[in-house]
Amino acid sequence: MLGLWTLTDQTIRSTLETSARRAIDVDLAGLADIYATSGREELERRIADRLAITPRDGSAPHYMLADATGRRIAGDIHQWPQLDPAISESGAIRVGEGTGAYARATRLAPNLQLLVARETSDNGALRRHVAVAFLGGGALFVLLVGALGKSAAGRLHWRIQRLNNAFRDSDDERLTAMTPRRRTDEIDELTEHSAAALARQKRLVEAYRDTSDQIAHEIRTPLTHLDGRLTRALAADPGDIVAARLLEGRADIKRLVAMLESLLDIAASKARQGDRHGLKRFNLSEMVTRICELYADSAEESGHMFAWDIAPGVLFDGEEMQLTQLVTNLLDNALKYVPKGGTIRLSLGQGPVLTVEDDGPGIAEADREKIFRRFYRSRGEASDSPGSGLGLALARAIAERHDLTIALLPSARGARFVVKEQGT
């Protein structure tokens, strides 16, 4: 609107100036004809008559009749400008205290010259009327465009919000509601494809869960039966050698069941990575404090020094059971590898930032990322040592499910695990 007004204003100025120039030429020709037919006295009278009339458009005329030396004879201009009457020169001049005007000079006789001018600094009411029209019309246009834009943006926001809600909570009712009855644009097409993809993903996840539960049941049941048989065999008071083998068998069964549950937990956490459904805000400080109080007795029994520093009021959106497992896995890992008499420290700060560090033997730099792989055992770790190599893998899967990162950072001595939000 501003650009259009500027163009229009310049066009009006140019048109009015052109009109003024033509009016000057016509006026000058008329006065020259009066002088030729009626003489100088009639010309002076006609100039006085014209000066007595003020035009309605405000473009007042100005005249000067002078002798060959520029001395004024008649008119309201008192000083001859730098215009040559011999060649009817025209140009911009100043009238009075500085009013701009366009003028043309001509020679009427060897000792008589005439100057006709019209003001150009004020182009009259026309420009003011056009300015008011542009101001009112522009304001109305802006309001109309703003209203239409707000309406379109609101509808677009609602459509995008419906997509986001479906991704956050893809229940059957929401997926059915977001499917458009007919396509009108690319967003409807995107909504339709998204609903189909979410429904397909939901079916795959449900099929995976059903299959996983079935496999877990089919494996856990015979192992449980086998453990019961071994228990009954131990109750029959077998010999020491047989009893020792039976106890080893029960330990293997328990390790297999724990491994199976860990694998299922890892798979479930990875499948729900980025899914915020089911996450609730809870006090992480209170949860970690309870865990530390429980592990204080275990550390004392195993001959370890255990210290913790927990900032109060750390709140977090997550599944409390899973995050409890993450913390306990890190502490179990430290108690397992730190020799007797070593120190384990846990700290929790805002962010949240959870740190578990120790002064144990540490982990080789080449293994700092590999330890988070499933079933990975470091080269210095005995193959018959307790554990299945799934604890840290499960901890990372739980962290990623909650948009957290877990990493083994360099430290002067021992290992230092840090869990924090992604991007911090």
TrEMBL record:
Keywords: Kinase, Membrane, Phosphoprotein, Transferase, Transmembrane, Transmembrane helix. Its main location: membrane. InterPro entries: HATPase_C_sf (IPR036890), HATPase_dom (IPR003594), His_kinase_dom (IPR005467), HisK_dim/P_dom (IPR003661), HisK_dim/P_sf (IPR036097), Sig_transdc_His_kin-like_C (IPR004358), TCS_sensor_his_kinase (IPR050428). It is an enzyme of class 2 (transferase). Its EC number is 2.7.13.3. It catalyses: ATP + protein L-histidine = ADP + protein N-phospho-L-histidine. This is histidine kinase. It comes from Hephaestia caeni.
